[in-house]
């Protein structure tokens, strides 16, 4: 129903495209809430999707690990 992607627009890190909604409510966080038990939280699913976008792909992590190991082996050969 929603999709996060990196934005090509300057100054905008991510874009969220909402494809389908059931209800639309007009709500905004305010400095002085009307009720004492009012809370504002980031949606957990949305936050997880954003974090996933910041992670490099699995192949990149494997590549970095292999390069690290090769560099380590080269350094150890130089010490011998």
Automatic annotation (TrEMBL):
Pfam families: Peptidase_S78. GO terms for molecular function: peptidase activity. The keyword Protease applies. Residues 4-51 form the Prohead serine protease domain. It comes from the Bacteria. InterPro entries: Peptidase_S78_dom. The keyword Protease applies. This is Peptidase U35. It comes from Lacticaseibacillus chiayiensis. The lineage of its organism: Bacteria, Bacillati, Bacillota, Bacilli, Lactobacillales.
């Amino acid at each position: 129903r929603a999709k996060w992607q990196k934005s090509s627009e300057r100054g905008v890190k991510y874009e969220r495209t909402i494809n389908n909604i059931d209800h639309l409510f007009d709500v905004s966080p305010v400095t002085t809430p009307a009720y004492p038990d009012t809370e504002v939280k980031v949606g957990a699913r949305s936050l997880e999707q954003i974090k996933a976008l910041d992670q490099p792909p699995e192949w990149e992590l494997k590549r970095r690990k292999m390069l690290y190991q090769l560099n380590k082996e080269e350094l150890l050969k130089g010490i011998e």
